[in-house]
Amino acid sequence: MESEGNQRTPNRPYNENRFTVRRISSVAVMQNVPENTELQVDSCPNAYVNQGYLSEIPYNADRKKSFQHNTLEALPRLDNYRNDFIGLKRPSLGELHGEEKDLKDKNENVAPPKNEPTGHGVKLGWIQGVLIPCLLNIWGVMLFLRLSWVVAQSGISGSLIIIVLSAIVCVLTTTSMSAISTNGEVQGGGIYYIISRSLGPEFGASVGIVFAFANAVAASMNTIGFCSSLNDLLRENDLKILDGGVNDIRIVGTIALLIMVIICAVGMEWESKAQNFLVVIIIAAMLDFVVGAIIGPVTDEEKAKGFEGISSKLLAENWGSDYRYSEMKQQNFFSVFAIFFPSVTGIQAGANISGDLKNPAFSIPNGTMLAVVISMISYAIFVFVAGASTSRDASGIVSELATGQFTNCFNRTCEFGLHNSYTVMQMVSSWGPLIFAGCFAATLSTALTNLLSVPRLIQAIGNDRIYPRIIYFSKGYGKNNEAYRGYVLTFIVSLAFLLIAELNAIAPLISNFYLASYAMINFCTFHAALIKPLGWRPTYKYYNMWLSLVGFILCVGIMFLIDWVTSLITMIITFALYLIVVYRKPDVNWGSSTQAQTYKTALSSALRLVNVSEHVKNYKPQILVLSGKPCARPSLLDLAYLITKNNALFMCADILQKKLSYKARQNRIRESYAWLGHRKIKGFYALIDDVNFEDGVKSLLQAVGVGKLRPNVLMMGFKDDWITCSYENLLSYFNGLHEAFYHRVAVTIVRVPGGLDYSWVTDEEISKIPANGNLTVTSNGTSDRSAALECLPVESPHLPRKFIINEKITKSPRLMLKKKEPTSQTKEEFQLNQTGKRLSQNIMQAMSLFNSKQDKGTIDVWWLYDDGGLTILLPYIISTRHDWSSCKLRVFALANRKQELELETRNMASLLAKFRIDYASLTMVEDITEKPKEETQQLFNKILRDYAGKTEEESEESVKNTVLLDLELEALREKTNRHLRLREFLIQHSSEAKLIVMSLPMPRKSMVSAPLYMAWLEIISRDMPPMMLVRGNQTSSLITLSK
């Protein structure tokens, strides 16, 4: 029997042999969903609505409804895997699990997509978008004006070697670029996007800026080439504008550059149409040159100028090199290579406009590789044709043809031939004007491509907010989101180099910039392939990481062989740009291979550390701080980090009794790490919820850490409210100490005047309090910096002193900081108007007690019992820190026998000397067993009375558990008196100390109750300077011998 959900609709024929699949787009699926994301019952009769979400019910075969409307699950689709913020996303695990919090958040947070331009409107295929731009960029000024000169200097064989070497660099770089570009979607930004998403923003931004600069300069170089060719054309017709030289180049070049920038700014449609026309002219010009060489010279004048037609004699004469003094220097292989290499630097043209491609992953590899093959073959043909048809030197004198002396320029200066004339291609061609047209087309098309790519790079870098100064130039306008300001900047940079008007002065600089970019592309691929993160799955399979490494080494090597000074400058500029990004630490997460490398290195190191045997010489205090939310106890974290800074593991733990939702946990973790980062504390944060303090400590000690990277010291604050809190609360704190000792972990308890807990200061509306007093605050709390500044103490050491924080009631609440006029008050105060609480300067100083510079003073170490040396090691570490370097150690120890006081002093001094610990004084304390003073005893009795008085308000069971029995006091009378005597010694010797470090009394299980133990700690630390009570785990943390 068919189930109800599978019944056929009445009055509808059923064909068992027909099966139809209708394609449904993700947008079409959601068209029936109201804008407020709540599904109405009448719009989907087969489901019911639960808190705005469609719940799963038995399926009713209404064939007009898609399956999407009958389940909360999301079907696999591309939009779910895009790394952006769009309205339609797969449901979270909490939503599928039915957690009310996640369902509510989903309803509140889903917003329709913004109608903002996200890219350029016209999308191009691989021929129009990659092949043609690459060919136009490769067939540039050097093809028509310098390739014949390259043949003259290096010969046919040397020129072919130069072409092959350039081809190797291009092929290797193209292979690497293809691998990266097919490893996911490539968006706007080209080379910058590829490198930044592969190696990280530091490499991508630095190389992107250099590459954008190189493209801008290359545009000026090609414009200069166009103007030089135009000057040659005018000179042939006895025309000129001013001087027929550099001034004409500057005038015409400025006009041409402005027109090209306007063409690019108009949009991709105009630029594409112009490129199609230009590429036809270039191909026609190249064919014109080959046909002319085959036909040979048609006049004696052409013969006299060195064009003799293709012959084996010229092929043999021009096969070898003939390096001469030219272009103000003695030429060699690599100097000629530097002049030629800009003619092959167009392989990135397609990647530069990757945001305008329909399918970048397919277009970039295929279009670029085909462009490299075509261009290199055309260059090789040109070399053979030019070398086999034209002499190196020619006088141009027709009368010397009969004697054959027209090629003899030994004692005279010749103006024609491969060495001396840049217009050989026009002379050899069958129709000269077409060569000029081809030269104009090649130079202008390459300049167009360069000018088009620079604003794209600037816009991509600006949108990522890597360099703040570039953001202004990245703003997009119009439906195609064109960066008009970027075009203005590109025009200014290109114009600056255009005014130099010297082609050969610019070419080596461009070569170095391009080689640096290509080197980084190869290194990106090598690094990603070496690390092999799970996300490295390029669809382009014809790459090899070792070939990428060879490409990287080859590019760097050629850079320095061309000109080590220029290469060094290029490296310095790139490194400076890299350091700027490292210093700024942009808030980006692109899944780069450097992130994968960091993980892999950390994992390998942690695994290796597991097999490293522990030795006391390598002991490090790895501290777990029970801080709660980090911003609540800044001074406790500062003290712990003072010990572990740059040397040992630091972890802060947050134990919560209430259960947090997943989103609340993630927000708390994010805010805590942001606060630690802003405080410049390098460490880890652990959050455990739905547990009491005792169980939380136990869980942390058992589970926190990895391998040998586990805490061996537990630091916690003194429980100031132990007298007034409930017995269960007190017992949980006390048992937490026992858990630490059970797990053989050292314990430190910290107490400072005024307490450690400043959570009452926290104001979640505060997002920025700058030192200059001008407050700009938002209440959305979306950024990590806002989270880091959630607590007022973040900037407390640097805050101006007299301020009032007022609340401004608006639709979007903001806090405004206004400077308070000077008053007659002796104490400067801070006021939170919304809470009415005031923060005195003393409180602000207390919150930054351990991370501020200390005046001259002492750190008093009361090393009462041998716990392995931790009690003396921790204060020694503190004394070595910069802020505490003015504080000297004073050591106090208990004397065993009064009559042997001098001997015990010498023994202790000898021990400290062997530990190599510097100290200012050593005092052996005697008479510790004497009876304490009456006022000390009275204070202790008052502490006990205060605690006992509190129990009267509690239940009978609680009173039974908390009242201190006379039997316990009598049994521990001697030990109690020792603690009372210690207080008297502390008052006598250490009341003015900057910090007191003392051995922590050991709470023996089943021997001392929680109230009595806390009374001991209270009598020792009450009204004292900042105090740290330390108990090591009874294993050595110091060593006297080097073995």
Structure, described:
With 1043 residues, this protein is of the alpha/beta class. It has 5 domains: 1-115, no CATH class; 126-393 and 407-563, Amino acid/polyamine transporter I (Up-down Bundle); 619-717, Rossmann fold (3-Layer(aba) Sandwich), CATH 3.40.50.620; 753-848, no CATH class; 858-1031, 3-Layer(aba) Sandwich (Rossmann fold). Helices cover 49% and strands 8% of the residues. It has a 10-stranded mixed beta sheet with strand order 7-6-5-8-9-18-17-14-15-16, with helices on both faces. β5, α24 (634-644) and β6 form a beta-alpha-beta unit. The longest helix has 36 residues, at 201-236. It is elongated. The N and C termini lie far apart (85 Å). The model is unreliable at 1-62, 84-88, 110-120 and 763-836 (pLDDT under 50).
Total DSSP E strands:
18
The CATH architecture of the largest domain comes to Up-down Bundle
Give the end-to-end Cα distance, rounded to a whole number of Å. Answer: 85 Å
Q: What fraction strand? A: 5-15%
How many domains make up the 3D coordinates? 5
Radius of gyration using CA atoms only: 40 Å
CATH fold-level assignment of the largest domain: Amino acid/polyamine transporter I
Family: Belongs to the SLC12A transporter family.
Membrane topology: Multi-pass membrane protein
InterPro entries: AA-permease/SLC12A_dom, SLC12_C, SLC12A1/SLC12A2, SLC12A_fam
Domain SLC12A transporter C-terminal: 633-1040
